[in-house]
Structures are given as C-alpha cells and as structure tokens.
Amino acid sequence: xxxxxxxxxxxxxxxxxxxxxxxxxxxxxxxxxxxxxxxxxxxxxxxxxxxxxxxxxxxxxxxxxxxxxxxxxxxxxxxxxxxxxxxxxxxxxxxxxxxxxxxxxxxxxxxxxxxxxxxxxxxxxxxxxxxxxxxxxxxxxxxxxxxxxxxxxxxxxxxxxxxxxxxxxxxxxxxxxxxxxxxxxxxxxxxxxxxxxxxxxxxxxxxxxxxxxxxxxxxxxxxxxxxxxxxxxxxxxxxxxxxxxxxxxxxxxxxxxxxxxxxxxxxxxxxxxxxxxxxxxxxxxxxxxxxxxxxxxxxxxxxxxxxxxxxxxxxxxxxxxxxxxxxxxxxxxxxxxxxxxxxxxxxxxxxxxxxxxxxxxxxxxxxxxxxxxxxxxxxxxxxxxxxxxxxxxxxxxx
Length: 398
Fold this sequence. Notes:
The chain is of the alpha/beta class and about 400 residues long. The protein folds into two domains: about 1-170 and about 375-395, Rossmann fold (3-Layer(aba) Sandwich); about 185-370, Glycogen Phosphorylase B (Rossmann fold, 3-Layer(aba) Sandwich), CATH 3.40.50. Helices cover about 35% and strands about 15% of the residues. It is built from 13 helices and 14 strands. It has helices at about 15-25, 60-70, 75-90, 100-110, 150-155, 185-195, 215-230, 250-265, 280, 300-310, 340-350, 355-370, 375-395; strands at about 1-5, 35-40, 45-50, 55-60, 95, 115-120, 145, 165-170, 200-205, 235, 265-270, 290, 315, 330-335. Helix 1 crosses helix 13 and helix 7 packs across helix 11 (about 340-350). About 45% of the residues are buried.
C-alpha cells in the first residue's frame, strides 16, 4: 500500500513530484499488487482500478482538510482513514511518502503492525511546519527511502534514526513519453507554433515560479544574453503553486516577476501551469534547460525530464542536483549559484554551440534511459520491498 500526502490527489492532476513518483513507480511494479491511497478530488472517482493499480481516495476537502492540517493531533482525519484501510486490507507493507508524522501516527496511535517504509522526497526543513516531528523524535519504521544520496545523508540521523534499513531510490522518468525535438521535429514545430515561436534560440525553465528556484536570476542573465543573441526567447513553464485552485495564485514574487517581464529587453513567454500528462510537449519548446535552484533540494524530476527530452542543462551544484546533472555529460554546473554573468555566459555558449548542445542532449537521453526509466526505478523499489519483508520475518533475538 502506497500512501500519498493529504495535499494532492494521485494521479497528480494537480501537480506534485511525490505524487508522480507514486503513480509511475506503482504502475511498473511486477511482483507486488499496488494499492494507492490519496486525498479525493472532484475530478477523480473515490475508488477505481487503472490497469493493475487500485486507487482509494479519502475525502479531505474544505473544513476536514483545514482541521487536519492545523489540528491533526485532535482531528487525525487522514491518519484514521489510512489506518482503517490498512487494517481492512492487511497489506504486506505500507509505503508512506513525505509524511514522517503519518508514519509515526500509524505505528504508535493506530498499532499498524505491518512493516512501514518512510520515503523522503524532501529535507526536514522543506516540509511544512506542521508536518515536521519535534527535533529528536524517533520514527520507528522498517525502512527509510530517500530520493537522493544528499537527502539520505542529511536525514538518516534525524528522520531516519528509527529506520531498520535505508536506501536511495531515485526519481524516474517516462523515456517513451519524453522525447527529443530531433525525434519529433513535426510535433516540436506544432507545439512551438502554439506559443508563436518558430526557430528562435529558446531557453526553457520548468517549475514553480519562485525566487528560491532562481527565476529572477534567469531574468537577470537573459538581459545579458539578449545583448549577444537579441532574438533569444525565455519560456517559463509553471504556476506559483500546486493544488486545486492554487496553480495561478498571484504571489508577491509573481507580481514583481510580471513587472520585470514587462520591462525586459527581449521576449519572455509565460505558459502557466501545465498538467503532468502534457509536460512532454512542453519540453519541445526549448533548446536548453535552465534550473538554477538557490536552495539545496532533494532531487528535481525536471532535470530527468529535460535530459530525457534531449536538452542540455545548466544547473547549480546544490543538493541532489549533481547526482543527475553530470558536468560535461548532460549539462554544465555553475561554480557560483547566484552569478547572472556566469549563467549568461553558459547560456550563450550552449545556444551558439549547437553541436556541443546536441551531444550533451544525446548523452543525457541515453544516460537517463539506462538509469532512470520507471521500470528500473520500480525494480529497485521491489528489491527494497523484498529486503524489508524478509527482515520482518526474521525471528526476534532474546
């Protein structure tokens, strides 16, 4: 049984990297029959089967969601429903994603006696303030999974202190859905035409429109790029938030961003939020991908998607990014995370050197196909499941 957070439904029609992982990894499991639990959504049925995956969605809208998020200790609505399903279905293991307090609650409050795995897609400090255990809290789980070595090293002695076994299982990518422009030249032309683009050199960013993602740094770098490549275009794909009714939320940063765009010396395209199912087409808009995150993140799926789409990448040397963006293989890493001059220089280099960009794109696509395709990720996950279940069968030592 794979348990998503109380925030977003699965499949991730409202966005969410952890939700995408759950959907895709579960669909590729071959030796386990997956049941996915997530919050309900008006555009999805409460219960259904898609191929071999069963979905159950728990009502968590309106006041129920507010009470749970603010006063979960007194109104453990989601925890209680998840525990009820576990006791009814008796799965061989429970795989909780990004919710250490839920894993703790299932173990201590609801006496769940099947092995529990806690899967961290973020660092402790990236979780919401009401989602973090108190410092020093032991989370007694059978296994801890982290989305990168960076996250595992950072959390194994904090959120992972109570774990009997640990493993790194990377995010994945659908290498058949995400294809390069040279493989889909006609489709690329059609997608670009939708945004009034032809063959202009195009820089692509995909993600939340936030300062922490380095979006303002990209704009500062583009002002230098336009001095050398006046017809270059910046395409920003994404909204300010995920979730129902939140993807076009107007934040203070977004207002300032729009003002900067109005004053920009070159062309900038804002696509808004694009649902995950349509994302493969979005990557056909770019000639290179830029993701200069300003914070240490676990591991962005966008870097895998960009590589699968044959795009060279420019990124920062932070968090789990260097584990999937290899300098000289599928992209280049910045020496300084917040230097617009360095970013602009690398952008111009890759936009002008088409041969080098194409080589990086081809190398990146081959690399992710070999290492990060969802069947490979699901296989790694099943091997960890096997280990956890085998460990749970061992006799206790007295």
